């Protein structure tokens, strides 16, 4: 059983219409939500890192600056994840693992702030990035400058972990990767948004929690089964795969409403004040 807490490490501004068919054209804030978990054996674990100072350094020059123009980013002083954790008495060196859902800049911007942490991510995602140049990766929202040799040396692949066949309402997702070989943290592929996109399933004192990253931009979209426009999902990834994944999440919500599904940019899950505690 794990304890966990959500933090908001910055946010970007974007029209709701880009994330939800029939949404508003006016820009709205999409929080970069990060989960900080405490495992009884493996210590403190992060699921993604949100925005951080390294993101702004990586997008300071053209053409990477286009990333910031397309989705304007707001990160106030003291709002980076490492700063918020420090205020809660958690040092950067206390983080044992960072589990990465995918390689988009708003999810990995703070990797450099946790230099002692091991990084779990999909080999598929890393291989995709390495096969493309600076421009090719940028076109899909990936910033290779965030992955220097030291960071890449800390990466360990989901694909090297034991495969677990999922059952019950989760069977539609196929198989998971057991990160610690004890069933406590399962990385589940959620294809469509980006290469090597994964969610994270675990249990806390109140039941099951499924962090679904960018498989949906909101809880409303999961409940209603409404995808983003095809132009957006096709630009970033694979529209057919994305819509299949969203349909699976919609069905999971209907069949197992007790499972808490947490998208990475959902305003319903936005922490109030000093984070949203779940223990």
UniProtKB/TrEMBL annotation:
Pfam families in alphabetical order: Lactamase_B
Domain Metallo-beta-lactamase: 31-265
Cross-referenced InterPro entries: MBL_superfamily_lactonases, Metallo-B-lactamas, RibonucZ/Hydroxyglut_hydro
Co-factor requirement: Zn(2+)
Entry keyword set: Hydrolase, Metal-binding, Zinc
Secretion signal, residue range per the UniProt entry: none
Stated family: Belongs to the metallo-beta-lactamase superfamily.
The protein's name in its UniProt record: MBL fold metallo-hydrolase
Species for this entry: Noviluteimonas caseinilytica
Organismal lineage: Bacteria, Pseudomonadati, Pseudomonadota, Gammaproteobacteria, Lysobacterales
């Amino acid at each position: 059983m794990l304890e966990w807490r959500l933090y908001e490490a910055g946010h970007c501004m974007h029209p709701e219409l880009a994330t939800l068919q029939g949404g508003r054209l006016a820009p709205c804030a999409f929080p970069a939500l990060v989960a900080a978990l405490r495992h009884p054996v493996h210590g403190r674990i992060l699921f993604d890192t949100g925005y951080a100072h390294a993101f702004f350094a990586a997008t300071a020059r053209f053409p990477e600056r286009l990333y910031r123009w397309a989705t304007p980013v707001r990160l106030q002083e003291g709002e980076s994840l490492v700063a918020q954790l420090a205020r809660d008495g958690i040092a950067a060196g206390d983080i044992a693992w960072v589990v990465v859902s995918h390689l988009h800049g708003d999810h990995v911007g703070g990797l450099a702030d946790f230099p002692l942490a091991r990084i779990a991510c999909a080999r598929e995602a890393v291989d995709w990035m390495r096969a493309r140049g600076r421009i090719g990766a940028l076109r899909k929202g990936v910033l290779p400058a965030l992955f220097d040799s030291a960071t890449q040396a800390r990466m360990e692949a989901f694909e090297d972990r034991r495969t677990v066949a999922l059952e019950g309402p989760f069977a539609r997702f196929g198989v998971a990767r057991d990160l610690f070989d004890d069933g406590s943290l399962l990385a589940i592929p959620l294809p469509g948004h980006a290469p090597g996109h994964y969610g994270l399933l675990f249990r806390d004192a109140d039941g099951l929690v499924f962090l679904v990253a960018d498989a949906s931009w909101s809880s409303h979209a999961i409940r209603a089964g409404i995808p983003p426009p095809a132009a957006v999902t096709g630009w970033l990834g694979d529209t057919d795969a994305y819509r299949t994944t969203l349909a699976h999440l919609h069905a999971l919500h209907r069949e197992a409403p007790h499972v808490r599904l947490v998208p990475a940019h959902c305003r319903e899950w936005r922490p109030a004040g000093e984070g949203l505690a779940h223990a």
